[in-house]
Structure formats: C-alpha cells, structure tokens
Amino acid sequence: MQTPWDHRYAQRTQRMKSSAIRELLKLTENPDVISFAGGLPSPDVFPVEEFQEACNRVLREKSSLALQYGTTEGYLPLREMIARHTSRYGIEVTADNILITSGSQQALDLLGKIFINRGDRILVESPTYLGAMQAWDIYGAEYVTVPSDEYGIITDELEAALRTGPKFIYVLPNFQNPTGVTIPLERRQRLVELADRYGVPIIEDDPYGQLRFEGSHIPPIVVIDEKLHPQQGYYTGNVIYLSTFSKTLAPGLRLAWVIAPPEVIRKMVMAKQGTDLNTSTFNQIVAYEVGRAGFLDHHVEHICKVYHERRDAMLDALEEHMPEGVKWTRPQGGLFLWLTLPEHISSIDVFKDAIEQKVAFVPGASFYPCGGGHNTMRLNFSYVNPETINEGIARLGVAIRNQLRK
Prior knowledge:
This protein is α/β, with parallel strands linked by helices. It folds into two domains: 6-47 and 297-404, Aspartate Aminotransferase, domain 1 (Alpha-Beta Complex), CATH 3.90.1150.10; 68-294, Type I PLP-dependent aspartate aminotransferase-like (Major domain) (Aspartate Aminotransferase, domain 2, 3-Layer(aba) Sandwich). It contains 14 helices and 14 strands. It has helices at 20-26, 48-61, 63-66, 76-87, 103-115, 130-137, 158-162, 185-198, 221-226, 262-273, 281-291, 295-321, 347-356, 386-404; strands spanning 34-35, 98-101, 121-126, 142-149, 152-153, 168-171, 202-205, 239-244, 256-259, 327-328, 336-340, 359-360, 362-363, 376-380. The strands form three sheets. An eight-stranded mixed beta sheet has the order 2-9-8-7-6-3-4-5, with helices on both faces. Strand 4 and strand 5 (152-153) form a beta hairpin. Helix 2 crosses helix 11, helix 12 (295-321) packs parallel to helix 14 and helix 13 (347-356) packs across helix 14. The chain starts with 19 loop residues before the first helix and ends with a helix.
C-alpha cells in the first residue's frame, strides 16, 4: 500500500532490509516456545551485583563526569584498560588505536560509511554474519563470497575472489556467527599473506573470542598481520579489529570497540560525530569500574563454564533426537552451532512445522549473501538451560522427521 511518504525517502532506503532474525523473534514471543533463534547471552551470567555497586559508586564519586557529554573516541581509562586486556592475546596497541562504539553494529555501520561506495565489492565468508550485510547494504555494497567448511573460510579458494578487487575482507575467525566454526592458524596465516599481497584490508570481527571453553587459543589475525608491518609505537597494519562487551558483561551496555591504525580511527571519529557525538559516558565509566580490578577475567571463566555445559547439552540432545542424515558443527566456544539437513529438505519448511511444535531457530539462507543454504539452520545454545535444551531439540527432531516423511 502506497503512503504519502513513499516518494520522499532517499533512494538508499530501498536497500534497507529488516533483520530476518528480528522478524522471526516476533514469532517466538509466546512463552511456550523454546527459542534457539536469538544470539542472546544468558541473563543467568549477568553480573547484576557488580553493576549495582559500580553504578552507585559512579553516581557518588564521578557523577559530574559520567552524566556529561564525553569525547567521541571514548573514555580514556576504558580504552587503556582494553589495550591492557588485548595485550594478553598478543594485540599490542595504545589508546590511540582504539575507538569506543555503541555496540559492534555501530562499528560495522561506521566502517561502511567511511569505506563503501555504491557497487564496491566486499569479500565475505559464505555463510556470514547477517548484521554486517544489513549494515553495508544501505551503502550499496555488493558481495564476493568464498565458501567455508568445518575449518572456516577455504583459503585455497580465496585468491580468485581477491582478483575481483574487493574493498576489504570481512571474517569472524572465532566461533563464527552463524556456524560456530573457528579458522585454524594455517588458514589465518594464508589469509593475511594473500590480503597483503593483493593490498586488501581485513576486518576481523571477534565478539566471541574470549568465550573459548575447549581447545587452545589461536593468535588473532591482527597479531599475525603485525609481524608483516613493524610498529611505529602504535599499530599501523592492514587489519581492523572489532570486539565487544556484549558477550562478556552485558549486551544492554551497548559497548564495543575498534582497534585500527590511528588514521582510520580519526576518520571513524568524524563519522561517529555525525551519528551520536559519543557513546554513553555513563555506560563507559560503569563498565570500566566493573572491569578494572580484574573482575572480567574471573567472570569470563564463569560464562565459559555455563556455556560449555549448555553446548554439551545441545550436542547430546542432537545425538539423541536427530534423524539420520542430519549433521552439525561442534563449536569450541561462542554461542552457536550450525545444523545441515539432507539436501532435499528446506529449513523454512521445517521452521513452519517447528513453530507448531513450539520450538524456534533461524533458517540458514539469510546468512548467504549470494544465495544458498536452503537446508541449513543456526541454533543458539547459550540462552536456554540444559533441561530445556533437551526438550527443544526433541521438538525440533519431530519437526524435521515430519518434513522427511513428505
């Protein structure tokens, strides 16, 4: 239906799409529905008491600062804390390399704003994070895809995609959203080598890297890249690194950060000033107060213990309830696993049946920018307790069997 406003919108709004996941979540508002659809951290691990104490302390001791406008770059002590924390993973940067953003989604939007012209190609894994595509579609991005397997992006197929001249490469190397897979060291090294050879920057999106509860830590792509680009007192390399407090403290904070060469940070600061001037000063100072005394390390250990148990519960339930021919990934951390149905089964059809069984997931096709994935689905294991996970997977098994009989 046409409205008086339709002809007034900018042409770019024609490329705007509602998040398929957000729309699906509306169908799961019934409390009887067991939802594996959202990418939600568990409220069971929110550090409520620590936040309450920090809020009281900030309002008592720093109210004039916390309730005021702040710098666009972000609260300096928080940026310095992030620099100290990331150095444990080999990322050696200073506060000048760090920009605080209102969630990683804003960081993705700002990167689109400063880098993407209409028609620019972005090289992504297939499947990839839906939110990145939603952020960049409005700027006119086109996508060049490289397939992935149980070890992430297949670097043997990367060079042909790089010859198309992409503006940058976008990857989620740790416990990827949506598949839960992790890129091994050898592929990370090859990715960095090829990106450097072709002069293509890498955006390394790492919201889940700290949530490892099995296996050994793998150096971030930005660390591998640092070895090719000797530092000048601050990071000047070919990788832009993103991470967030949403998965380790609470998503309601809307706090994330970008690590990049200072010249990129300066350009992002200018773009951010036209968006929101600065990220919530109060939230930044509270997050600093919660995290500054080493609490974050212990809290992440607690989160990993909880999510490990829930991951195992889902894997056990899948073994028990899934029919023959269904396959799934075994993530070593993060929030998600990826389920693949027999080729002739559509996950959209399964979803319709699953809602009748009062269980929900995200059909996988939404994560493929150039089509595909009709027989895949993303399952979140972090939000639901182990007993409910088993019941939900049992219901999902019924829905899949119903489709197999058709």
